[in-house]
Design goal:
The complex is a heterodimer of chains A (about 120) and B (about 110). Chain A contains no helices and eleven strands. Chain A has about 120 residues and is an all-beta fold. In chain A, strand 4 and strand 5 form a beta hairpin. Chain A is globular, with a radius of gyration of 13 Å. Chain B is mostly beta strands. Helices cover about 0% and strands about 60% of the residues of chain B. Chain B has no helices and eleven strands. In chain B, strands 2, 4, 5, 9, 10 and 11 form a six-stranded mixed β-sheet that branches. In chain B, strands 1-3-8-7-6 form a five-stranded antiparallel β-sheet, with no helix packed on it. In chain B, a hairpin with a 2-residue loop joins strand 6 and strand 7. Classes of the chains: A mainly beta (about 120), B mainly beta (about 110).
């Protein structure tokens, strides 16, 4: 039973380019969460999605960042016009139920580097 | 605003020692508290989840306690092994927050020397 799959593992972009990060949740999981880990910082919640719905985007920057979780296919975190400060590790997690006490399963992350 | 603090930031111990990692949070209105392990270059692995109505959880050599009123949790690791070397993170879910909105501490980096 494959875990949460994130790709790519490493992504390099130049300032002004777009970055697209993908996350395939564990089989049977319909809830996806994105987190960002900046250097020397803790993980910060970004967004919580269910299939075709954004449930909580309170941690998303207001500009340049968007996320989706379509009916078919992986969840996508998109960063437009990247800047140096976007360099971080981006983690995706998933869970099977709308249950507040359900542990999340994390992927190994995408390390984004901006040149 | 909820803040989660972990002390110490780093800890080095000889193999076999029992140890305690500390986590504190400023707002006691939480649904739960979780302890995670993060290995270098990897994602997080959930170790223990303590619901707000519980006082502790145990899994193997790990025991986590929760004192919600004082805003503290401890993770106790018995008979530490070199394979326990990793960064340990604690996170809380606030009342009124969505289930995915975990608030993390910065972690304690543990090194267990053979």
């Amino acid at each position: 039973n494959a875990g949460v799959m994130q790709n790519p593992r490493h992504l390099v972009r130049r300032r002004g380019q777009e970055a697209r990060l993908r996350c395939s949740p564990m089989k049977g999981h319909s809830h996806v969460y994105w987190y960002r880990q900046l250097p020397e910082e803790g993980l910060k919640f970004m967004v919580y999605l269910q299939k075709e719905n954004i449930i909580d985007e309170s941690g998303m920057p207001k500009e340049r960042f968007s996320a989706e979780f379509p009916k078919e296919g992986p969840s996508i975190l998109r960063i437009q016009q990247v800047v140096r400060g976007d360099s971080a590790a981006y983690f995706c997690a998933s869970s099977p139920l709308q249950e507040i006490n359900q542990p999340q399963h994390f992927g190994d992350g995408t390390r984004l580097s901006i040149l | 605003k909820q803040e989660v603090t972990q002390i110490p930031a780093a800890l080095s111990v000889p193999e076999g020692e029992n140890l305690v990692l500390n986590c504190s949070f400023t707002d006691s209105a939480i649904y739960n508290l979780q302890w995670f392990r993060q290995d270098p270059g990897k994602g997080l692995t959930s170790l223990l989840l303590i619901q707000s109505s519980q006082r502790e959880q145990t899994s193997g050599r790990l025991n986590a306690s929760l004192d919600k009123s004082s805003g503290r949790s401890t993770l106790y690791i018995a008979a530490s092994q070199p394979g326990d070397s990793a960064t340990y993170l604690c996170a809380v879910t606030n009342y009124g927050g969505s289930q995915g909105n975990l608030i993390f501490g910065k972690g304690t980096k543990l090194s267990v020397k053979p």
